[in-house]
Design brief:
Layout: E1 2-11, E2 37-46, E3 53-58, H1 63-80, E4 85-89, H2 93-96, H3 98-106, E5 111-115, H4 125-139, H5 147-164
Parallel strand pairs: 1-4, 4-5
Antiparallel strand pairs: 1-2, 2-3
Helix pairs in contact: 4-5
Length: about 170
Amino acid sequence: MIGFQDETWESLYPRIEAEWMKKGEQKRVLTPKKSKRRNTFITLLWPERKNGLFFNTYPKRRSKEFRHHLSNVLAHAKRLGAKKIILFVDHATCHKSPATKRFIRDHKSILKVKLLAKRAPRLNPVEGDVNRPLKSVVCTNRSHPDIESVVEETRLFLRKYRQTLGT
């Protein structure tokens, strides 16, 4: 079982991209005064087709939350009967903290971590296969009344995406 992991930052500031509009009309996308964020740790499990996407959402992106996500991934992998997990991660600070290294060392019998190349998002399948469509569907040219609606739309998208991932 191989896991690819990455984070997605969701913000109430919408991502604005060019889009077609009728002549003379202009779309208004409201923005709040303060940016609020949530972090979603996403892990792709391979060759697992059903339930091949595993995610957890947290208010912050710290080593503590990443370790919690890893423990959830390990529990999920054990339920599936995995003997070994190779996890490919990018160079985020929460992936390389001393506490995270200790967690990985404590679980070295089942968990092996490989770092992806720096500044190479195209090598990370989560970036292209999950994050790009997620941002497009949930964030681009959309306004949300509060951060919880963004989190709920993110969860709905990822649950639907999980079902169609291997097809």
